[in-house]
User: What shape does this take?
Amino acid sequence: MSRITIFDTTLRDGAQGEGISFSVEDKVKIARKLDEFGVDYIEGGWPGSNPKDIEFFKHIARVKFKNSKMVSFGCTRRPRHTAESDPLIRNLVESGTPVIALFGKAWDFHVTDALRCPLEQNLDMIHDSVKYLKSLGREVIFDAEHFFDGCKANEEYALKSLQAAADAGADALVLCDTNGGSLPMEVRDITSLVCSRFKTPIGAHIHNDSGMAIANTVTAVRAGAVHVQGTINGYGERCGNANLCAIIPILELKLGHRCLPPGKLEEITEVSRFVDEVANLVPDERQPFVGKCAFAHKAGMHVDAVTKHESTYEHVTPESVGNDRRLLVSELSGGSTVVQKAAKIGIDLTKGSPEVKAALDTVAHLEHNGYSFDGAEASFELLLRKSLGMYRKLFDLKGFRVIIEKRGPEEEPITEATLKICVDGKEAFTVAEGDGPVHALDNALRLALKQFYGKELAKIKLTDFKVRVVNTRAGTAAKVRTVIESMDSEDSWSTVGVSTNIIEASWSALADSVEYGLLRHLPK
Amino acid sequence: MSRITIFDTTLRDGAQGEGISFSVEDKVKIARKLDEFGVDYIEGGWPGSNPKDIEFFKHIARVKFKNSKMVSFGCTRRPRHTAESDPLIRNLVESGTPVIALFGKAWDFHVTDALRCPLEQNLDMIHDSVKYLKSLGREVIFDAEHFFDGCKANEEYALKSLQAAADAGADALVLCDTNGGSLPMEVRDITSLVCSRFKTPIGAHIHNDSGMAIANTVTAVRAGAVHVQGTINGYGERCGNANLCAIIPILELKLGHRCLPPGKLEEITEVSRFVDEVANLVPDERQPFVGKCAFAHKAGMHVDAVTKHESTYEHVTPESVGNDRRLLVSELSGGSTVVQKAAKIGIDLTKGSPEVKAALDTVAHLEHNGYSFDGAEASFELLLRKSLGMYRKLFDLKGFRVIIEKRGPEEEPITEATLKICVDGKEAFTVAEGDGPVHALDNALRLALKQFYGKELAKIKLTDFKVRVVNTRAGTAAKVRTVIESMDSEDSWSTVGVSTNIIEASWSALADSVEYGLLRHLPK
Assistant: This one.
């Protein structure tokens, strides 16, 4: 049961994936989640490359982590600077993180043709930079860029680059397959060679350009690596980085290593979906271990066998990674989920009871129409309450009208919403402007509810608003799913709405959000 | 340069993937494409399992193939039948294919617990079935189901199952990792063992439940397998089958094997996209070799290096697999990207010139305001043209008004857009309904442009619409980024718009999208 160190680079290398653009808030959210999950290192960004990452490190310095160490990433000093004078190194120091991941060149061709400096000088640059950062008391992880390709081209030089870092006191030497082109046999042989030569812990950082990043990372561990770099869901430049959502289960369940604190592996499916949600990416359903289809059985024979013996068509149990088995022909799944969710909000149900069946039918029907309650517990609770006759209606919608008008090519559009609701037979008819149609509707709704629930309403704040197209084929007439997140001083909650009309979808989510928030504060 | 046989099972095992439902016509289309592409075997379906597959084989019998042999799939005779009397075997014979893939049990646990028959009897079933089909002059490929798990549990019995098939004259013995849980080292050892025991050609059929199907298949070939089974784009039950779109390039480009007729590897990207199109699935952009992102560079340093030497950040050339290099524009990219992009659209710029600097400044400014061009090349091209004075304006917006009205809690909202534009001094004022505000605006714009660009407009279709909130803190007043994807018969393109008002953001993306599409078809 040897320990393998997990180094997450979702926020740095993962952010280089196409279509990924994290805000500072997104990054903080994910970092907190990763700490909770229990990875050893969180690489937060490259403070030298853009102002957003500098802002992130300023922000994250105030957050106290339980399990993880924060890492900033950067390159060895440039030829014309000393380590102390290089502004990029200064950015790393100023980021204030306890750990610094420093990448340097290990492939001679890259030194001469991309960096364009003498081979010896590059070794000095590695040595000086590591030594300087070590002298400041930082933990230094040396990422040997293109190590595998470098080793194939000039083994002696590649090893020298590691030696330069090791001699300067680096805490780990990480072998990078930067272009993602290496094969498992090459990774095995080269990692074994390095492990036999160095006492410093060896790590692996593998890209997925040959679709082998998971296998190559596991192979490196079998060959002696004890530190693994990767990203949640395999985000990353081009074809992505090694996917931690597969590597961690393989190392823990199949090879008996320990990567996470006890009990945490069962959260990996939830972590995977949380990160997709924050990145606003559609989850890959076929993703091993954590994907929606990973334990979905379609062929009749498989379904039949799997209900006799799980291990007939499953290599690990879905429970071990917090995922669910789904039998696609019968759609039997879900009963225990409803029971569990109900228990969470203090409602005692029995699996197989008519109440559970009714709730499941409603969920199935809504999911068929594009709903997803994965990230929208508040809407699910309202639905459950309605289905169980435990719902208290706070207002009736009579109607609304939203007008967006743009009067010239350079003019800002004007948005106005009118809304009529009814509370205990009393009508409220309001009009409000907003920065956009949902904002205007939100303002009109608040105005209308003020006279009835003013005190409670003041506590609720909308914090996030996300839109996703559910069936993309239909272009602008496609169905959209809107998720709204709100908070008060104690908690936050999410609600969901689905419609072909984005305003209607937003209205559903908005109404649920406000209603759920009010119910939290009104006397029961 | 040894020859590896490619056995495609997209139409059989691939069709067991969730969300895949091929019609008979779809299957015929794909089979023709695969034959053209040059795979050795096309497994068309399981004539015993459903009437659609029986119809497919009836249909396909009339098609003459150039490169591929058609295969029908089924199981060995059942305990209570002889090979001749088993109706499922009769279906195989009647399908009329020259090749039959027959699967049988190799794992003792499956024989006793799923099949529920004595171990010896299962060996007879394998032997009789292969022998009978061989006596009819068919080529018989024996798929040893669960072979790797079986071999780990009871090596002697697993090998006996292969022996039964080999003795009966099977033309190939295929080792299946049916649950997809095997690791590369296990696949290597077990395949080597089998290859040392049998003269019959050995094949590998691997599932992807550990994310290692590509690596395991390549490992099996290195250990002596000469026959590879897989699917286009890795379709298949649960996490899918081994992905031929990665395995074939690896075997041909990295290991010097020959899989396809000469020159055909360059068609693999097109084959991948064709099959996704027929299956009506959104292509996986991060897919190795053939994905849209496989050769997309985002980090400025990578872009800079790759334009100096392609091999710095690419393990194979995009041309070798018929894919394209893409340099993504973002705050992380530098002058080289702009120069390269401009060159692609026939504009000659120099890195460091004032034009490039101006364009970069504009990008930086827009990105700071929430734009992201990395998935929106068309908007970037329009921006570049504007910045260089090479832009031809097709219409002026005078204004629009969108009204969304909901008249009761259960009523569908009514959405209506009015739009005024001006082309060469001539005004068009239109009104249209839609399923949502963007759809209504799209309809109104098309109506307005029809009289000016009707022929060109007819070719453009909106295919996707994405919305993302850029700064989530501000709740419903947050800034949103809309990305619209459109296509004509030849190509697809993406555009982007950003605003606090979702309608304004959508309008920008929509206007760019239509304008870019029209410019493609109008005389220069």
Q: What stands out?
A: The first strand of chain B starts at residue 5 and ends at 8.
